[in-house]
């Protein structure tokens, strides 16, 4: 069973949902650099303020900021992990490799969740998350409207600042420019698995489980 995992894919390809599902079922700690950066921004830390000046416009945060929050999370003594939305640039991937190799916890697999733009757009525009428990929901599927209470904890639902049509365009451009080249990088490393991320969550999960067991 592969337990050192990267989830790669465009915005709203399902990385966060699948990371949560794999993490819960197989007890593998998951981390989203997007979450870490949003938490820093909510805490109003210097790093968070810097990151928000990029993320709010749909630009990628600078590599050194992202590497700093990731290294803090990785700490020492981890032997399994799911990286959700990290690495997102070739520079991050190249810095990550020696870090993991020296800790003797190299990557086992990269799951690339492919997704078409129509699906991405409808998911992004319908996405809300709970301010308190951080769980993510879809309007029309899990909740009636963005004003509904959180179905898990009754907390307040919020929309991400970067989940708007204009910002999504920028995020897509950044994805194609900076992140998509990682598909070829990890294919050449021999650890890339392509999965159709536009399917229903449960179907995607079944394919991920197969890939992790292979
Ligand atoms: P996400 O929650 O994964 O969609 O990330 C939200 C935003 O945080 C992205 O649009 C980027 O601006 C920023 N971000 C998250 N992860 C990274 C990363 N690995 N490298 C650069 N920026 C990132």
Structural commentary:
The protein has 214 residues and is an alpha/beta fold. The protein has helices at residues 15-26, 33-42, 46-55, 63-74, 90-102, 117-125, 165-179, 181-188, 201-213, and strands at 4-8, 30-32, 81-84, 109-114, 127-130, 136-138, 157-158, 192-196. The mean pLDDT is 95. The protein has nine helices and eight strands. The chain is globular. A hairpin with a 5-residue loop joins strand 5 and strand 6 (136-138). Helix 2 (33-42) crosses helix 3 (46-55). The structure holds adenosine monophosphate. Residues 11, 32-34, 37, 54-55, 59-61, 66, 85-88, 92, 162, 171 line the site of adenosine monophosphate (AMP). The site of adenosine monophosphate has 18 residues, from helix 2 and helix 3.
Determine the structural class based on helices, strands and strand pairing: alpha/beta
Radius of gyration: 17 Å
Distance between the termini: 7 Å
Strand content: 5-15%
Cα shape: globular
Mean pLDDT across the residues is 95
Total helices: the number is 9
Q: Secondary-structure element sequence?
A: EHEHHHEHEHEEEHHEH
Bound ligands: adenosine monophosphate
Largest sheet properties = 5 strands, parallel
Widest sheet, order of strands:
2-3-1-4-8
Report the count of strand segments. 8
The low-confidence parts are none
Give the helix proportion (percent range).
40-55%
